[in-house]
Amino acid sequence: MTTGWLRLSPGKVVVFEGLDKAGKSTQLELLKARVEAGSASFAHMPSGYTAFSRSLYQVLEHEPPSSGLARQLAHLACHHENMRMLTDTVRSRALVLDRWWWSTVAYGWYGGHRAGRNI
Q1: pLDDT at position 85
Q2: What residue ranges define each of the domains in the chain, with the CATH number in brackets?
C-alpha cells in the first residue's frame, strides 16, 4: 500500500450528512483522493445505482412535488430500490454514502412542513 493511502475495510459504511453548501462534496472529494482504489464504493443518495432512482432524483431536483410528504416518500422509494445493491457492496468493500436518512427527513415531509408548504 502506498504511504498516505487509506484502505477502508469491507463491511464499513461511512455517511456524509449535512445541509446544502456545508462542505460534504469537498470532504467526499478529499476522501476519494485518499482511499485505496477498489477498497470503497461511493454512492450519492437518493440517486444511487439504478436507472429508476437516478431518473426519479432528477425529477425531485427539477420538478419536485408540492407536498413534502410526497417528496419524502419518493426519497424512501429510491433508498429501497438501491438497498440490495448497497448491501451487496458492503459484503465486498466499504461503502461511502453522500447522504442517507437525515437528508430524507430534512428534504421531505419535515422540510415541507417547516417551510409552511403543504404536507
Answers
A1: 95
A2: 13-114 (3.40.50.300)
Q: Which of 8, 11, 86 is nearest to 43 (CA)?
A: 86
What pTM does this model have?
0.80
**Neighbouring C-beta atoms of residue 7, cutoff 10 Å:** 14
Residue spans of alpha helices (H) in the chain: 24-34, 51-62, 68-92, 101-107, 109-114
**Cα 45 to the center of its chain, rounded Å:** 2
Task: Classify residue 31 as exposed, middle or buried by CB count within 10 Å of its CB (0-12, 13-18, 19+).
Answer: middle
Torsion angle (degrees, nearest 10) of CA 54, 52, 31, 23: 40
**Segment 29-79, tens digit of pLDDT:** 999 999 998 899 999 998 999 999 999 999 988 998 888 888 888 988 999
